[in-house]
Write a structure and sequence with these properties.
heterodimer; A: 112 residues; three-stranded antiparallel β-sheet; 4 helices; B: 946 residues
Chain lengths: 112, 946
C-alpha cells in the first residue's frame, strides 16, 4: 500500500496543515485524511510528524485549538487558523510557488 | 477566547490527558475507517497502531511543546512553572512509593527530632523573657575573686547584701529601678494550710520594686504597699498567689482576695494574684550555692529585718532595669564607683568586692547553652546522616532515570529547568517529611519534656509555636536543598547518547562518578555515626559508673525524713527561746532555737521511730545525703604557735616549732546525732564513734573522714588534733576517723573536686531543721507511713516533711546524666540504623550495576567467596575511611563532651575501640547481605541481565 504513496517533501507539512484548515476547524485525523484525499492518496501525513507539527504551530500561535466532538461523539481536539496562521499560510504558499517553479524550470530543461 | 485560556491553565496531568485523548481519538477514527475496508476490529486497531509509529515518542514531544504553550500562555503567573514542577514531582513520587516512603521517613525522623529539641531550646533560651524590654534587665552580683579562690566557691559572683542594695538603689543614676528576691523559708518550701489539705509549697519573698522592675502588674489586686515592703517590715502579713496556685487550690475564685491563708502557721492576707505564666527570672545565687529562685507558688514580703544582718551578708538576688540607652559596661562602672565609696566606710566587709552586672539573657544562655547544644548536636548529626541517605537514594534514582532526563534535555528542557524540577522533587519530599516530622515533634516534645531533668527553667512550657513552625519549615527546605542539589546537578548532566544506549545507570560514564559520590556520602555517614556513638558510649559509661558508684554508705533500705520545726511561730514557740506574740511579725534571726528543747524533741523522735517494727536504727543529721543543698564551712587548723589553740594531746607536735594556722576552704561540715555512722553503714577507721555524754555543738568532739584527715594532717594521725569552724573560737578535738562517703548531689559535684568537696567534719548537735535517717530491715517504702505516724504522734502539729528513700534521692541526683545518656544514646541508635540502611542500599546498588560483570566472573570460575569479597571490599574502604574520620572528629569534640562527664575522661580508649568495632561489624553485616545475594546469582541469568 505504502509503495504507492510518496514521502512528504520537506517544508510542505506546515503548508498542507494550514491549507487544510482554510475550510474550517478540523481535528488531527481529519487533517491527515483531507491531505490524503485531496492529493488522490499520493501524500500521506504520518502521525509521528503530524501531531508534533500541530502542537508546534499551536505553540507558535498560528493555530488555535478547541475541544469538541467528532461525528461519533468522541472528544476531539479541533484546530483552526489564527490571523497569524493565515499570514503564515500566505508566506508558506508564496515560498512553495517560488521553489516549485524553480524546480519545475530545472526539471523541464532539455538535455544539453 | 476564554475557553482556550482555561484549557491551557490546566495542570500538567491534564495536558497529558488531553494529548492522550487527542491521539486516542485519532487511532479510533483510523481504526473505524480501516474496519470499513473489511478488516476485523482487532486487526484494524493493530493496523492503526502500527501505522501510527512510536506513540510514546510522539506523546513525549507533544508534552514538551504543550508544556511550553502552557507556560508561555500564563507567563504572568510566575508560580505557574513551579506549580508544574510540583505536579510533575508529585506524580514522580507517587510512581515510586518505596523510594518515597523510605526517604520521607528517614527525613521525618531527623526533622521531627530536631524540631522537638528546638522547641525546648526555643522555650528555654530563645523565647524572650516574658517581661517588657527584657534586654534591659540585668542581675547584679557582688564579686570577690580572691575570697572565692580562698573558699573554693564555684563562682566569684555572689548575691547582694541588703545594706549595699539600699545604697545602690538610692545613689545610682543608671537604673530605672531595682528589686530583689530570696527564698522565704528555704528551698524545700513553706507549709500552706487553711485550704483543703496542708501543702508544701515554694514561696519567695520579694520587694515591691521587683514587680515594677520586671514591668509586671498583678492580674488581680496589688503588690506590696510601702508599709508592707522592704526590709524593716512591721505591718500585717500579706501574700500574692501565683496564677497556678490560685487555680489549683482556690478554683480561680477572685473572692480569695482579702481572705486569710496560713503560711508556716502565720496568717497572711491574700492581696494579689499574678498573671498566668508569671515567674521571677531564674536568678543565679552564685557563690557556693546553686539554687535558682524560680517556680514560686506564693510571694510574700520579707518577714525579718535584713538590716539586722551584717553588710557582709550577701543573700539577695537583685534585678535591675537599665535606663534606656545605658550600656551594661557604663552601669557597671558607676556601680563599682559606688562600691568603692561604700568600702571607704565599711572596709571590713566591702574591701575587695566589686559589682558585676550580667544581662538576664546571657545568664540563661550561659548556664543552659551546653546541655541544649549537646542534644541539638546529637539530633543534628542524625538529620545529616538522614540527608546523606536520601541523597544516595536520589543519586540511584537519578541514574535510573537518566534516559528520561536525557530526552527532556534533548528536547530543549534546559539544564537549569531540569535541575529545578529535580530540586522541586527533593523539596516536596522534604516538605512532606517536614509535615510528618512536625507531628513527631508534637508528641516528641511531650515525651522530651517529661524526661527533662529538673532545674531547666521553662522547659515544661516547650510547645510548637510560630517560631518552631518557622524553624521546622526552614529546616525542611534547607534539608531538601541539602540532599537534593548534588543529585540534581549530577542527573542534569546526563549525556543523551549514553543514556539512550540503554541502561545508562549500569554502564554510563556518569555512573562511575556517581558511585564515587555515593561512597563519599557513606563515608560521611559512618564518620558522623561514629562521633555520635562515641558520645553515647561515653555518656552511658559515665552514667553507669555514677549509678554503680560506691557511695561509701549503704543506700538500700534507707529513708530520709525531714523533721522541720519551721520558723518560730505561735505553734512551735516551745522550741524557741523568745516570747512570741502572733500579732506581731517575728525577727526570726533574733530568735534562736532552745537547744535543750530541740535536743529533747529529736531524742524522742529517734527513740520513737526506733520502736517502729522493722526499723533497725535511726539517727539525725542536719543534711541528708544527695539532696540539693550543700553544707559548707571553711575549717581552721591551729598553728603550733597559736595562743588560742591548746596543743593536741600528745601528737599535736612540738611547741618549739612555729607552724602557721591553716585554713581549709570548702570543707563539708555535718551536724549529726548518735548512731549516725551505724545507721548509714559507715565504718569507723580509727579512733571511736560518738558516744552518749560527748559534748555537743562547736566546742565538743569531732569525727573527720579519711579525706579530710589526709588533707589536714598528711602522714600523721588525725586523732587528738584540733579543728575549728571558720570564724568560730571554739575548738573541737578529733576523736575518730570515718571512711569516706559520697554525700553530695551531682550538681555540686560538677563544680568541685571530690577530694575537696567530700572532705568532711562531723560533730554532735541539733538544729531546728533536721533530717532523720532511718535504716529499715526490708523495702523502705513499706515503712514510710508508719514512720510518718510515729513522728506525728510526738507532735501532731508538725509539718509532715518530705520523706524519700535514699535510693530515690540517688536516682534524682543522677537524673541529668541519665537523661543525656538516654537522648544521645537513642539518637546514636538511629544514626547506626540509618548508616546500616545507607550501606545496604549502596552495596545492593553497586552489585546490581555490576550484575553482568559478576555473571561473567562466575562463568569464568570465580567462587562465591571471591564475589562476596569483591562486592564488600569496595564499601569496606568507605567504612574504614569513615571510621578514621569519625575518630578524628570525636577527638576534636572531646572537650565539648568533657562538661558532661563526671566519672570519665572524654578520651577513653575503650569506648573508642568498642564503638569502632560495633560500627565495623554493623557495616560488615549491612554489606554482607546484598553481597552474598550477589554471589549466589545464577551466572547464566546474570549474563542475560540488562
Amino acid at each position: 500500500m505504502t509503495e504507492t504513496r510518496d514521502k512528504l517533501i520537506p517544508g510542505t507539512l506546515n503548508l498542507l496543515i494550514l491549507k487544510s484548515l482554510t475550510w474550517g476547524p478540523l481535528h488531527g485525523y481529519a487533517i491527515s485524511k483531507w491531505v490524503l484525499e485531496r492529493t488522490d492518496e499520493v501524500l500521506h501525513v504520518e502521525e509521528g510528524v503530524l501531531y508534533p507539527a500541530l502542537h508546534r504551530l499551536e505553540k507558535e500561535g498560528c493555530l488555535e485549538a478547541e475541544w469538541g466532538r467528532n461525528d461519533t461523539g468522541r472528544r476531539a481536539k479541533f484546530y483552526s487558523l489564527t490571523p497569524a496562521g493565515i499570514r503564515r499560510l500566505e508566506t508558506e504558499t508564496a515560498r512553495w510557488r517560488r521553489s516549485a517553479r524553480a524546480v519545475d524550470i530545472v526539471v523541464n530543461l532539455k538535455d544539453a | 477566547m476564554p475557553g482556550f485560556k482555561r484549557l491551557f491553565r490546566r495542570s500538567d496531568g491534564d495536558i497529558l490527558r488531553d494529548i492522550d485523548d487527542e491521539l486516542q481519538c485519532h487511532l479510533a477514527m483510523k481504526a473505524r475507517d480501516l474496519e470499513e475496508r473489511h478488516l476485523t476490529e482487532a486487526d484494524a486497531r493493530d493496523e492503526a497502531l502500527s501505522r501510527f509509529g512510536d506513540l510514546a515518542e510522539i506523546r513525549n514531544q507533544c508534552l514538551v511543546l504543550q508544556s511550553s504553550v502552557s507556560r508561555r500562555r500564563s507567563r504572568r503567573n510566575v508560580l505557574d512553572s513551579s506549580l508544574q514542577d510540583l505536579r510533575l514531582a508529585l506524580r514522580g513520587l507517587r510512581r515510586s512509593p518505596g523510594f518515597t516512603t523510605v526517604a520521607v521517613f528517614t527525613l521525618a525522623l531527623g526533622i521531627g527530632g530536631t524540631t522537638a529539641i528546638f522547641s525546648v531550646l526555643n522555650s528555654v533560651l530563645l523565647r524572650p523573657l516574658p517581661y517588657p524590654a527584657p534586654e534591659r534587665l540585668v542581675q547584679m552580683f557582688e564579686r570577690n575573686p580572691e575570697r572565692a579562690a580562698e573558699r573554693g566557691w564555684s563562682s566569684a559572683d555572689v548575691r547582694v547584701s541588703a545594706h549595699n542594695y539600699r545604697d545602690y538603689r538610692e545613689l545610682n543614676t543608671v537604673f530605672e529601678d531595682m528589686g530583689w528576691a530570696g527564698w522565704a523559708g528555704n528551698a524545700s518550701g513553706v507549709n500552706l494550710t487553711g485550704g483543703d489539705r496542708p501543702q508544701r509549697i515554694v514561696a519567695v519573698s520579694t520587694s515591691a520594686s521587683l514587680f515594677s522592675t520586671l514591668g509586671v502588674e498583678p492580674l488581680l489586686g496589688r503588690t506590696w504597699l510601702p508599709s508592707e515592703d522592704g526590709f524593716a517590715f512591721e505591718g500585717p502579713r500579706v501574700a500574692i498567689l501565683s496564677h497556678g496556685l490560685w487555680v489549683r487550690e482556690f478554683g480561680a475564685d477572685p473572692a480569695v482576695l482579702g481572705r486569710t491563708i496560713t503560711v508556716d502557721e502565720w496568717p497572711h492576707t491574700v492581696v494579689g494574684i499574678m498573671p498566668p505564666h508569671f515567674d521571677i527570672p531564674p536568678l543565679e545565687s552564685g557563690g557556693a550555692l546553686s539554687t535558682r529562685l524560680s517556680g514560686a507558688d506564693l510571694y510574700v514580703p520579707l518577714s525579718y529585718n535584713a538590716f539586722g544582718l551584717s553588710r557582709g551578708a550577701r543573700q539577695f538576688g537583685v534585678i535591675a532595669r537599665l535606663r534606656e540607652g545605658v550600656e551594661v559596661e557604663r552601669a557597671e562602672e558607676e556601680m563599682n564607683a559606688l562600691s568603692e565609696g561604700i568600702s571607704e566606710t565599711n572596709s571590713d566587709v566591702n574591701e575587695g568586692w566589686s559589682v558585676r552586672l550580667i544581662p538576664l539573657e546571657d545568664l540563661l544562655t550561659r548556664s543552659l547553652g551546653p546541655q541544649i547544644a549537646l542534644v541539638m548536636a546529637a539530633v543534628g548529626l542524625v538529620l545529616l546522616i538522614g540527608c546523606a541517605n536520601v541523597a544516595n537514594l536520589l543519586l540511584a534514582r537519578g541514574a535510573a532515570r537518566s534516559p528520561e532526563i536525557a530526552i527532556r534535555a534533548a528536547l530543549g528542557g534546559g539544564r537549569s529547568r531540569i535541575v529545578r524540577q529535580l530540586l522541586t522533587e527533593s523539596l516536596v519530599l522534604a516538605t512532606v517529611a517536614g509535615g510528618i516530622g512536625l507531628l513527631l515533634a508534637y508528641s516528641g516534645t511531650r515525651v522530651l519534656v517529661s524526661l527533662i531533668p529538673a532545674g531547666i527553667p521553662r522547659a515544661d512550657a516547650a510547645n510548637i509555636d510560630g517560631t518552631v513552625l518557622v524553624f521546622a519549615m526552614l529546616l525542611s527546605l534547607g534539608t531538601g536543598v541539602a540532599f537534593g542539589i548534588v543529585p540534581a546537578l549530577k542527573a542534569s548532566r546526563a549525556d543523551l547518547a549514553t543514556a539512550m544506549r540503554g541502561g545508562g545507570e549500569r554502564r554510563g560514564m556518569g555512573s562511575r562518578t556517581r558511585g564515587g559520590m555515593s561512597h563519599l556520602l557513606v563515608t560521611g555517614e559512618v564518620a558522623l555515626a561514629l562521633v555520635l556513638l562515641v558520645g553515647a558510649g561515653l555518656l552511658t559509661r559515665n552514667f553507669a559508673r555514677l549509678a554503680g558508684a560506691d557511695l561509701g554508705f549503704e543506700p538500700e533500705n534507707l529513708i530520709k525524713v525531714s523533721v522541720d520545726l519551721g520558723r518560730p511561730n505561735a505553734y512551735n514557740s516551745k522550741y524557741y527561746t523568745c516570747d512570741l506574740d502572733s500579732s506581731r511579725p517575728l525577727l526570726w534571726n533574733r530568735c534562736p532555737p532552745d537547744r535543750d528543747a530541740i535536743a529533747r524533741f529529736y531524742d524522742q523522735v529517734v527513740e520513737r521511730v526506733m520502736r517502729v517494727p522493722g526499723v533497725r536504727s535511726a539517727a539525725i543529721t542536719d543534711l541528708a545525703p544527695l539532696v540539693d543543698v550543700r553544707g559548707y564551712y571553711p575549717l581552721r587548723i591551729p598553728g603550733t604557735t597559736d595562743p588560742t589553740a591548746p596543743s593536741g594531746d600528745g601528737s599535736g607536735g612540738d611547741v618549739g616549732e612555729s607552724e602557721p594556722e591553716v585554713i581549709l576552704g570548702n570543707t563539708d561540715g555535718r551536724v549529726v546525732g548518735l548512731g549516725f555512722f551505724q545507721t548509714m553503714g559507715m565504718r569507723i577507721v580509727s579512733g571511736r564513734d560518738f558516744q552518749a555524754g560527748d559534748p555537743t555543738g562547736w566546742s565538743g568532739v569531732a569525727v573527720v573522714n579519711e579525706r579530710l584527715a589526709a588533707r589536714a594532717w598528711p602522714g600523721e594521725s588525725a586523732l587528738g588534733k584540733r579543728v575549728s569552724f571558720y570564724g568560730g573560737l571554739d575548738w573541737m578535738t578529733v576523736i575518730g576517723v570515718v571512711e569516706d562517703s559520697r554525700q553530695h548531689n551531682l550538681r555540686e559535684r560538677l563544680k568541685y573536686d571530690d577530694e575537696i568537696l567530700e572532705s568532711r567534719v562531723y560533730h554532735l548537735g541539733h538544729a531546728a531543721n533536721m533530717d532523720l535517717m532511718v535504716r529499715t530491715a526490708s523495702d523502705p517504702n513499706a515503712f514510710i507511713e508508719s514512720i510518718r505516724e510515729a513522728v506525728l504522734e510526738l507532735d501532731p502539729g508538725l509539718p509532715t516533711g518530705a520523706i524519700a528513700t535514699v535510693e530515690e534521692l540517688a536516682g534524682n541526683s543522677n537524673a541529668a546524666p541519665r537523661f543525656y545518656a538516654l537522648v544521645v544514646g537513642v539518637f546514636a541508635g538511629f544514626a547506626l540504623l540509618l548508616t546500616a540502611v545507607g550501606l545496604y542500599g549502596l552495596v545492593s546498588f553497586t552489585v546490581g550495576r555490576r550484575t553482568k560483570e559478576i555473571g561473567l566472573r562466575m562463568a569464568l570460575g570465580a567462587h562465591q567467596g571471591d564475589i562476596r569479597t569483591m562486592a564488600m571490599g569496595h564499601s569496606a574502604k568507605s567504612v574504614g575511611l569513615g571510621i578514621a574520620l569519625g575518630v578524628a572528629g570525636a577527638l576534636a569534640m572531646a572537650n565539648v563532651l568533657e562538661t558532661f562527664l563526671y566519672e570519665m575522661d572524654a578520651i577513653d580508649p575503650l569506648t573508642y575501640v568498642v564503638v569502632a568495632l560495633v560500627l565495623a561489624v554493623v557495616a560488615a553485616g549491612a554489606s554482607y547481605v546484598p553481597a552474598s545475594r550477589a554471589s549466589r546469582m545464577n551466572p547464566t541469568e546474570a549474563l542475560r541481565y540488562d
